[in-house]
Design a protein that fits this description.
mainly alpha; Arc Repressor Mutant, subunit A; Diphtheria Toxin Repressor, domain 2; 6 helices; 70% helix; elongated
Length: 124
């Protein structure tokens, strides 16, 4: 089942928050993303039904294998694209905001080329 850009953003947010605290809850997502609790609840329901997230009895969110794979892919894209943009002179905040938009639409081919360029630029 294909996942929408908003779903990718939720999965990435769960991944990022779980690096700081393994017990991520819906309220944490709401605060992190700046979305209302009902919006987060609806999105998490879709992700849960799609098999991307599980919710424990305590309300802790956990990425499934599929959810984790998508989240890690998007997170890597965000990190690499942010690095690339800062390396070519974009300020970090703008680079991060732009990377957030680009990470969902860039092709694998273009992303891999950018990734190689970042590696080369970082070595110099």
């Amino acid at each position: 089942m294909p996942i929408q850009e908003s779903g990718e953003m939720y999965l990435e947010s769960i991944l990022v928050l779980s690096k700081k605290n393994p017990n991520v809850r819906a309220i944490d997502i709401s605060e992190y993303m700046g979305f209302s609790k009902p919006s987060v609840s609806r999105a998490l329901s879709v992700l849960k039904n799609g098999g991307f997230v599980t919710v424990s009895e305590q309300g802790h969110l956990k990425l499934t294998e599929d959810g984790k794979n998508i989240a890690e892919k998007i997170y890597e894209r965000h990190t690499v694209l942010t690095n690339y943009l800062t390396l070519i002179g974009v300020d970090k905040e703008t680079a991060s905001q732009d990377a957030c938009k680009m990470e969902h639409v860039v092709s694998d081919e273009s992303f891999n080329a950018i990734k190689q360029q970042v590696k080369l630029l970082s070595e110099n």
